[in-house]
Amino acid sequence: MPQWDRIGHYMWHIRGMDLERRPTPDRIFDAGHVHVGRFARPFATVNLDEAPARHLFDRLRGGRLGGVERAWRKMRLKQWHYASVATPRLFLGAVVFDAGYIGVGFAYVVDRKTGHAREWSKMVPLARGIEIAANSTDGTSRFHAKGFGEIEFGNDGATGRRRLRIRLAAKGDKPGLEVDLEMREEAGAVEPVIAVGEPEPGRWLYTHKAYGLPAGGTITSGDWTETTALGDALAGLDWNRGYRLTETYWNWAAAAGRDARGRTVGFTFTSHVPVIGTGHDAGHATDTANDSAMWLAGKVVDLSDLQFAYQPTDILLPWRISDRKGLVDLEFQPLGERVEDLDLKLIVSQFHQPYGTFRGTLRSPAGDVFAISDVFGVTEQHFARW
User: pLDDT, tens digit, for every residue of 230-252?
Assistant: First the structure.
């Protein structure tokens, strides 16, 4: 786990991999090789399920018990489709998550003024009823469970249109949730982050992220209801597929909104700690799974070396997030948090996700300053064994 610094906060610094964007091959795994780095556009074929992943039974690959190896490799593959949408009144987050051993569908809505939240969550064994789109731009990701409802992400790479439809049942005093939202990720409007990392040999992670996407539609939960025109709401996308380390610890922060001049801003900051082979002595490491970036008026700025400072024993105190180049200087004030403490021995998830408002400055490499004061989003502290 990360070390305490002398003032009682967790602090670490992650040095990013080479951030030069490369031309994107058609297939992520091709001719026995997984392409690693940052790329100019999404992969059409995200076939990491075919890659020779390192795992408990990898020595059986190609032999008489190859079926056992293939089945276990499938269980080790983790993939999810997440989106968040900030409207003037509400904040929505939703995910379809296939962890192999289990699957999860969840959604939550926060009233931005009061900080009150409503959450719907369902876990299913062996990810039954879960479908993840074949790649990050086309097809459908869906979670369906009887008595719970359905979460569906529809994607059309040709037009950049993404659709989020949610129909979740009421339970007890908690009303249900109905969502029909459109998000736009048109080519050239908001540049995505496309990254393939290899945190250790034989473990690869693919991610497609974009924040500050124009969004609009309807969110309804009981007496909470809001309809926005396309562009009056702003969204974030996080699509992941890969073979993660058996134990993973990370911090994350993400949001989309507007600066004081009305320009769109968005960001996703990640620190993966610890990184294999680095130890804990100085908190410095090379993180080849780095996918941190910010979007300033739709233009992406790839980042590395993010610093999180917060008090883990009181996670609702303010957070500070910055980078060594002086491009990021933010304070996050939590209004509440989502918490998960799951211990199934084989699978462990110790999860804290505060939600609230960011304020501070984001700077472009050319020196343009984007001042923000009320951008709604989340931070996260997560330890997972999977």
Answer: 999 999 999 999 998 888 788 99
Gyration radius (Cα) of the chain, Å: 20
Shortest CA distance to 73 belongs to which of 97, 96, 100?
Answer: 100
The tokens describing 213, both together, are 């996407």
**Euclidean distance between CA atoms 285 and 16, whole angstroms:** 9
Residue written as token pair 């799951």:
342
Mean pLDDT for 326-331 is: 97
Give the span between the Cα atoms of 217 and 263, in whole angstroms: 21
Cβ–Cβ < 8 Å for 179, 107: yes
3-state DSSP call for residue 332? Answer: strand
Q: What are phi and psi of 49, to 5 degrees?
A: -65, -20
Task: Express each pLDDT in 1-29 by its tens digit.
Answer: 233 232 223 232 233 344 678 999 999 99
- As a whole number of angstroms, the distance between CA 93 and CA 248 comes to 22
For residue 60, report the phi and psi dihedrals to the nearest 5 degrees: -85, -5
Per-residue confidence (pLDDT) for residue 383, from 0 to 100: 82
Model pLDDT, residue 273: 54
What is the distance between the alpha carbons of residues 383 and 381, in angstroms, rounded to a whole number? Answer: 7
Specify the pairing of strand 293-296 against strand 264-272: antiparallel
The Cα 157–Cα 134 span in angstroms is: 12
DSSP-derived 3-state class of residue 255: strand
In the chain, the amino acid numbered 288 is T
Short-list 323, 39, 49, 73, CA closest to 208: 39
**Shortest CA distance to 303 belongs to which of 336, 329, 333, 281?**
329
Question: Element (H or E) spanning 155, and its range?
Answer: strand 149-156
Cα–Cα dist 290/246, whole Å: 18
List pLDDT tens digits, range 369-379: 999 999 999 99
As beta bridge partners, residue 146 has none
pLDDT at 284 over 50: no
Beta-carbon count within 10 A of 113 CB: 10
* Strand bridging mode 348-363 / 13-16: unpaired
DSSP output for 321-363: EEETTSSEEEEEEEEEEEEEEEE-SSSEEEEEEEEEEEEEEEE
Torsion angles phi and psi, residue 58, rounded to 5:
-65, -20
